Amino acid sequence: MRCVSSHASHPDAHQALALALASLQARWPEGSTPTLGFCYLTDALAPQGEALWRALQAELPGVAWVGAASVGVLADGVEYLDEPGLALLLTDWPADQWQLWDGCRPLRREDGIEAALVHADPSTPELAELLPELAARTRSGFVFGGLAASRSQPLQLCGTLHAGGLSGLGLRAGLNFSVRVTQGCLPVAPLRRITACEGPLVLALDGEPALPRLLADLGLDLHQPGQLMPVLRATLAGLSEPEDTTLDRGGRFEAAVRVRHLVGLDPGRRGLLLSEEVRPGMGLTLGRRDVEATRADLTRMATSLRAQAEDAGQRPAAALYISCAGRGGPHFGAPHAEAQILRRALGDLPTVGFFAGGEIAHQQLHGYTGVLALFCEAA
Question: Any idea where the FIST domain is (predicted)?
Fold first, then answer.
């Protein structure tokens, strides 16, 4: 399994592509034919997306390309956020181990698809409901990916150039890969069960009015707004399904937890308003974003995933990483910090990805998370 990655930055898409391709071609092994490529570009280059697509086809006509435009991209320890940037990964994976899919070429279990990478336009109607449906079309019931949040043109690459919607890559059993999720905040209160609610309005937690319960968990007083509001703005809600655990053995949020905003309070009904509709029986755990905890969890997740592969006699060959746009840059303390943490944990491994407006894993739409896919071959 051969994998080579590269990246470049230039306001002109042709120049950015020329720089990235020169690096790829210089390191691509002679005698090997590339079959599949990943291409991520920042939305600063999206208006030149069609020209970029034609150039990719001309330079590497036998390669099938999958990717998207978003607010930021990353590759090999470097991040491009709010600037022109391009990230490429070229592979020679056998064509019978993967399948491009989109609205015209849907996923089908009978095609032997084990799991699927999903690139989604955030404006897609009922997106959260579509993810379980997509997952049901795979044998493992697992999809992963992200919302390609572009402020210009919602471009996706999937064998052809798409303007939004959903598309991606189906992965068959012959392709050895593992996927993990890292959360972006720490729990600061006990797990509570939602016992009464209306849509996104939580009215009761553990049988008690929700707002007083929340204030007690945070040690806040409703009559002291000067202290109340800064804490609430920094507080997030970790939601879990009734059958799921919320915390792992290390006291961190489990990967299946969905982190959502607290968007308002209803003192009259003693409730709290979330950014997602909820149901009775779901778990709710308050959390806060924490830089050091986020950095440590990313390191732990990446090193454990690599160690698991090596213990199984596999050699990591490439990685795909999708992170929340709200995590990149300043949240990690310095430019490129998140990508560099990942590179230190994985080693000199070809890695590309993008910064998303929401991350996809476990059939669900997440926020403030990072989703890492590690592709391996026999050692």
Answer: 33-209
